Amino acid sequence: GAVVSQHPSWVICKSGTSVKIECRSLDFQATTMFWYRQFPKQSLMLMATSNEGSKATYEQGVEKDKFLINHASLTLSTLTVTSAHPEDSSFYICSAPSPLAKNIQYFGAGTRLSVL
Amino acid sequence: AQTVTQSQPEMSVQEAETVTLSCTYDTSESDYYLFWYKQPPSRQMILVIRQEAYKQQNATENRFSVNFQKAAKSFSLKISDSQLGDAAMYFCAFSGSARQLTFGSGTQLTVLP
């Protein structure tokens, strides 16, 4: 079946540095991908919709300059957390819609970000 | 905007017994999908079951079934013959025309041996 690969699975970085998270659709093309954020014991909150070849659509309250999204190809979207701070520590999950089954999403395994 | 509400933060069930997780939602859309996702400790999101709003028949997947009450905007999940591997966080989710998912706050299910 269709698979979404997310890398890295866990990253630790120093405060002030930037971290890039990759989300790849392995056997299908995805013109749209979604990025979610999940704090411990909380739900998934949509951060932004990544659109291939155009600007991402950010949800209200999400800083565009803080969370840079690039969707340069039909199989890859990246989320860069710029100048990371401890409050950015969270679990980040990407998903891509199935090209076949309406409204089915394929999820990456998630990235745990810890900012020291 | 859509909202999804799960009023049970935690539930527990004895192994082999049946448990029902509750979910209500609100939307002005007429064409939408509802989902139950399972998130085990690995945190990988796993689709449990999907319901299309225009279908009156309740979806069933093996031991998992839903009770979809469209007028009441209710979408509960029933797990029959509960197994230890069912222990996880369960999220109810909504997807409409925009295709992104709106999640409820989740229900942590514990299965007691």
Protein architecture, described:
The complex is a heterodimer of chains A (116) and B (113). Chain A is mainly β. In chain A, a hairpin with a 5-residue loop joins β4 and β5 (44-51). The radius of gyration of chain A is 13 Å and the shape is globular. Chain A contains no helices and eleven strands. Helices cover 0% and strands 52% of the residues of chain B. In chain B, strands 2, 5, 6, 10, 11 and 12 form a six-stranded mixed beta sheet that branches. The interface between A and B is medium-sized, with 21 and 18 residues.
What key attributes describe this structure?
heterodimer, A: 116 residues, mainly beta, four-stranded antiparallel beta sheet, B: 113 residues, six-stranded mixed beta sheet, 12 strands
Order of helices and strands of chain B: EEEEEEEEEEEE
**Total beta strand runs of chain B:** 12
Strand content of chain B is over 45%
C-alpha termini separation of chain A: 37 Å
Low-confidence stretches of chain A: none
Helix content of chain A: under 10%
Task: Please summarize the sheet with the most strands of chain B.
Answer: 6 strands, mixed
Most extensive chain-chain interface: A-B, 21 and 18 residues
Lay out the secondary structure.
The complex is a heterodimer of chains A (116) and B (113).
Chain A: E1 4-7, E2 10-13, E3 19-25, E4 32-38, E5 44-51, E6 57-58, E7 67-73, E8 76-81, E9 90-97, E10 105-107, E11 111-115
Chain B: E1 3-5, E2 10-14, E3 19-21, E4 24-26, E5 33-39, E6 46-52, E7 60-61, E8 64-69, E9 74-79, E10 88-95, E11 101-103, E12 107-112
Parallel strand pairs in B: 2-12
Antiparallel strand pairs in B: 1-4, 3-9, 5-6, 5-10, 7-8, 8-9, 10-11, 10-12
